[in-house]
């Protein structure tokens, strides 16, 4: 095997492996192992569903509590002692004490975060497999294909089916990193680490204003290339890009979206020099924060329900808009975990009952009927047990809804039973 850059190289190869068709006892042994995995998955589903309901209800009550207590601040530049320890709402532009630097590439920006992203040109292996039965054996045909791509992580070529001609370096000469400003403020208030962590709307930084930092580094578009020929890179070459989040100053050297905003700002200021239009074109990142005031710091607020409120959103949002977004996020997370819990229960039941399919898998017609029946059984039982678990989670918070869900949990089983009885009579 040679590299793809060679005109006569092969980009893929096929490997066929075969093994004797497993006997009944071997299949039964594999099914028994699957039953153990199914049991663990089945029990895990109860934990996910039960704890999710408690979390969802606790979060909803905490948000309702926060909405009833939050105090909007009149000014972000003065600190009122009357709001000490209270949950406050404020919106304003981010500010940092000093710019973030990357001296290796001669780059600096006044922002909350600066991320250096390093990619290496590497070989990547792809597999496409299919199994079939032939001459009493199970054969597996695997097609391996190789391509060169830019990857942020080192691809271990030792795990390739054929490493010869597709070998990658074992490490990158330049590492990725994220620099975070040690002091981030909105007006006179200092943001806690938890709030700073929420500033993650990264945008790519334009490098058009920078020169090549070293003789062996070439700038092309918004990348620095460690390559002899950036247009035709070789395996092991690097390219470096930069991203920023939470702009805290007027910097003209930004990504395309920010340059458009800056150009519009300059255009309108030229046309209307005495207007207040500048407040609608702030180049700095504006955020909305809801947290507890502690002196000049914004820290987590612990609710009576046992949850923590420490909220930050980009833009200028009202109190109602912030809490509406939080409620929507809580609802989406709740339904996602409910679906995950139901799926985990369905998979667990399917694995635990697969032994019945193994016992009859040599009878084609019976095998298909049993397979369909087991899937219907798994769907019905998983649905009933999921509803029952959710209702138990609600029992201490919403008893009437819990009793209704308990009644609904019996419906899938009754439906499945009503279909089984006529078949028995026939």
From TrEMBL:
Signal peptide: none annotated. Belongs to the TMEM43 family. It is a multi-pass membrane protein. It comes from Agelaius phoeniceus (Red-winged blackbird). The chain crosses the membrane at residues 32-50, 335-357, 369-388, 400-420. It is found in: Endomembrane system; Endoplasmic reticulum membrane; Nucleus envelope. GO terms for cellular component: endoplasmic reticulum membrane; nuclear inner membrane. Keywords: Endoplasmic reticulum, Membrane, Nucleus, Transmembrane, Transmembrane helix. This is TMM43 protein. Pfam families: TMEM43.
């Amino acid at each position: 095997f040679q590299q793809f850059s060679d005109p006569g190289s092969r980009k893929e190869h096929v490997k066929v492996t075969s093994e004797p068709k497993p006997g009944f006892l071997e299949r039964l042994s594999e099914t028994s192992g699957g039953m153990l995995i199914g049991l663990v998955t089945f029990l895990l589903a109860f934990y996910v569903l039960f704890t999710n309901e408690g979390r969802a209800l606790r979060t909803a009550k905490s948000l309702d509590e926060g909405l009833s207590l939050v105090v909007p601040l009149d000014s972000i530049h003065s600190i009122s002692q009357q709001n000490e320890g209270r949950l406050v709402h404020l919106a304003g532009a981010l500010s940092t004490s000093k710019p973030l630097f990357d001296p290796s590439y001669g780059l600096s920006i006044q922002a909350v975060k600066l991320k250096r992203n390093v990619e290496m040109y590497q070989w990547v292996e792809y597999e496409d497999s299919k199994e079939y039965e032939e001459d009493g054996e199970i054969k597996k045909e695997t097609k391996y294909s190789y391509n060169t791509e830019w990857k942020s992580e080192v691809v271990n070529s030792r795990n390739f089916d054929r490493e010869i001609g597709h070998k990658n370096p074992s490490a990158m000469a330049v590492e990725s990193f994220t620099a975070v400003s040690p002091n981030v403020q909105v007006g006179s208030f200092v943001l806690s680490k938890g709030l700073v962590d929420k500033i993650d709307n990264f945008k790519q930084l334009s490098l058009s204003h920078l020169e090549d930092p070293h003789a062996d580094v070439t700038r092309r578009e918004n990348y620095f290339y460690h390559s002899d020929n950036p247009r035709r890179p070789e395996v092991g070459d690097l390219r470096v890009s930069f991203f920023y989040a939470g702009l805290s100053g007027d910097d003209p050297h930004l990504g395309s979206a920010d340059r458009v905003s800056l150009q519009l700002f300059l255009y309108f200021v030229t046309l209307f020099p005495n207007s207040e239009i500048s407040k609608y074109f702030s180049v700095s990142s504006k955020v909305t924060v809801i947290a507890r005031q502690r002196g000049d710091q914004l820290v987590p607020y612990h609710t009576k329900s046992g949850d923590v409120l420490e909220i930050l959103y980009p833009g200028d949002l009202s109190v109602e808009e912030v809490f509406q977004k939080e409620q929507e996020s809580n609802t989406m997370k709740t339904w996602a975990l409910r679906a995950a819990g139901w799926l985990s229960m369905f998979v667990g039941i399917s694995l635990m009952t697969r032994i019945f399919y193994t016992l009859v898998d040599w009878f084609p017609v019976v095998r298909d009927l049993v397979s369909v029946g087991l899937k219907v059984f798994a769907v019905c039982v998983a649905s009933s047990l999921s509803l029952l678990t959710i209702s138990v989670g609600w029992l201490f918070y919403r008893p009437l809804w819990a009793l209704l869900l308990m009644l609904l949990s019996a419906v899938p089983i009754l439906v499945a039973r009503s279909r089984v009885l006529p078949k028995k009579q026939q």
